[in-house]
Protein: phosphoglucomutase (alpha-D-glucose-1,6-bisphosphate-dependent)
Amino acid sequence: MAAAQGGSVVSYAGKVDFLKLQNGSDIRGVAVAGVEGEPVNLTEPVTEAIAVAFAAWLLNKKEADGLRRLRISVGHDSRISAHKLQNAVTHGITAAGHDILQFGLASTPAMFNSTLTEDEKNHLPVDGGIMITASHLPYNRNDDNQKEREDASRGVVTNVDYMSIYASDLVQAVRKSAGGKEEPLDGLHIVVDAGNGAGGFFVDKVLKPLGAVTTGSQFLEPDGLFPNHIPNPEDKTAMMAITQAVLDNKADLGIIFDTDVDRSAAVDSSGHELNRNRLIALMAAIVLEEHPGTTVVTDSVTSDGLTVFIENKLGGKHHRFKRGYKNVIDEAIRLNSVGEESHLAMETSGHGALKENHWLDDGAYLMVKLLNKLAAARTLGSSIGSKVLTDLVDGLEEAAVTVEIRLKIDQNHADLKGGSFRDYGEAVLRHLENAIAKDSDLHKAPKNYEGVRVSGYGGWFLLRLSLHDPVLPLNIEAQSKDDAIKLGLAVLAAVSEFSALDVTALSKFVRQ
Structure:
């Protein structure tokens, strides 16, 4: 791969299939050796080449503004490979004649934000940013998230404590919601679980300045080996850890982040988890108080109970779209562009973005919206703690049984006949759709943007094709195990003739 500025060409990395590193909007690869079957492919030369190419692409976009020298920020989470990849990015971009702002340990949302922050003293805003992270994936993985925002001599490297700037903006947002009170969370006990990722800043730089008690917060120290639990708000062990911390410390609220802080979840004082559908319901309740009637965009696996809650109780509109936080956010932006007001886009994974926050995917900002509610209640002299949040999701109907079963496609099976797993998966979905049409107990969703979604037996299922992998994830929700099994049996009967599809896990589920 080569990239050029001012006519000079820098060659990197030898023969590398860079397209294999592309994963949706990320560049994703293995950066550390040690896991069998996962050879290192995101090396320093490869990272340097990608960074130079990003700078060349960005410069081309900025040409209309007359720019010839860019300012690009680079930050990283607690990955053990972060420093060497940051150095590779810095070397490539400065060698191409552009300036680098090194943020060090940072969150992905902060990197987005650095393209917006007006701060001349700290050389902000930047023209683009690069985040080195792999969210909750294993320690050996890494991604480059690259975000857009006069001479060919070597660029300048400047170290900037951007996380303090970013956190200060979060603090001011909470103070503003509380009428300018300096410590609107005074007396509230809030514990944070950062999972040894980049979210530890939230304790010292956000909660303490707002007056909160934070004793019992855990795993705040960055450690890329993640010795305590996977930093993932969807992970049962992680949610058990923050729940236990809340109960042990008799805290009012618990907050948990993923590695790079673009996802989050909460736990109320009674140990009730506020994640997945519940977190979307809570955010929808807050946003619909501020913007009555607005449309809430979610991913495809949200529950029917959430739809009823948003539309019947809150008076909003639920627009269920495709999986993938970028898909959800882009759909909300599209709806606004055609005249349908939308202020919230969220995935069940904990990704969430608000129109008021420039549609930035920001787990810390979501938690600030919860803190705003707590601060407002505190200002009124209320001592009910997190009950003000729990009350907002009162009436959300939740399924008794919720399962996800992943049906893998064997790409080497003769049934594929040399074709792609995607074509094979689409054939499975078409066959399922036809089979459902013949079953009077099952009803296809009238509006659906991904896979086959069907209601019946007091519940629903969704079979869809994974965004990136040879997998058909099956989500089932029902009010009883028997009803969930009936839905599973309907899927199994329809797809069992597809020999390249591994239905072992589904067969085991329906035999329970």
Summary: The chain has 14 helices and 23 strands.
